[in-house]
Amino acid sequence: MSALFEHSPWVEARADARPSSGDRHADLMAVVREATREEQLALIRAHPELAGKAAIDGSLTEASAAEQASAGLDRLTPEEFDRFHKLNAAYRERFGFPFIICVRLTNKAGILAAMERRLGNDREAEIETALAEIGEIVRLRLETSQ
Q1: Looking at residue 1, what is its pLDDT?
Q2: 74: burial class by Cβ within 10 Å (0-12, 13-18, 19+)?
Q3: How many whole angstroms separate alpha carbon 136 and alpha carbon 132?
Q4: What pLDDT is attached to residue 114?
Q5: Active site (catalytic) residues
Q6: 77: left (phi > 0), else alpha (psi -120 to 50), else beta?
Q7: pTM above 0.85, yes or no
Q8: Spatial distance between the Cα atoms of 43 and 6, rounded to a whole number of angstroms
Q9: Can you list the residues of the chain whose pLDDT is less than 50?
Q10: Which of 27, 76, 84, 108 has its CA 20 to 30 A from that of 64?
Q11: Which of 70, 42, 43, 47 is CA-nearest to residue 60?
Q12: Cα distance between residue 73 and residue 55, in whole Å
């Protein structure tokens, strides 16, 4: 089974080290909520940029590659690719971490609209939004692994 959290096995390890509530997703997200802010930022930063360098050089995790493909991010026109690249750069410059969205619940147009809209958020709101989106990604990964 692929990891539920991008390059962050500590979340599952901590959840496994405590009594289970019977709800794996809730247990995992409790670990994320209780993590230090630096750990939360490390978790967010472990995610790849959408349609970014990792998608081109093949270093995406299997789960991320499949998820990005499901939203059509593996089939961008040159114009779309340029727009993603510019928005990714602006987002990372503003917040210090990559834009996170559960791509399986949207499409290219929805992702681009969300990137533009969320650039107007403050950093704390974006950290909370990114963690909530990671929660959705993990929920769907759990559902497909069962």
Answers
A1: 42
A2: middle
A3: 6
A4: 97
A5: 47
A6: beta
A7: yes
A8: 7
A9: 1
A10: 27
A11: 47
A12: 9
* pLDDT at residue 54, as a whole number: 59
Q: What's the farthest any 2 CA atoms get from each other in the chain?
A: 50
For residue 78, give both structure tokens: 């040159």
Q: What pLDDT, on a 0 to 100 scale, did the predictor assign at position 55?
A: 65
* Distance separating alpha carbons of residues 97 and 54, to the nearest angstrom: 15
- For residue 63 the two structure tokens come to 């789960």
Distance of CA 86 to the CA centre of its chain: 18
Q: Judging by beta carbons within 10 Å of its beta carbon (0-12, 13-18, 19+), is residue 38 exposed, middle or buried? A: exposed
Q: How far apart are CA 14 and CA 49, in angstroms?
A: 26
**Rounded CA separation 74/72 (Å):** 5
Can you give the pLDDT at residue 43?
A: 97
**Residue 116: its pLDDT value, please?**
96
Q: Which two tokens stand for residue 23?
A: 């709800």
What type of residue sits at position 104? R
Quote the tokens at residue 146: 């069962």
Long-range contacts of 71-79 (CB under 8 A, 24+ apart): 71/103, 71/104, 71/106, 71/107, 71/108, 71/111, 72/107, 72/108, 73/103, 73/108, 73/111, 76/51, 76/108
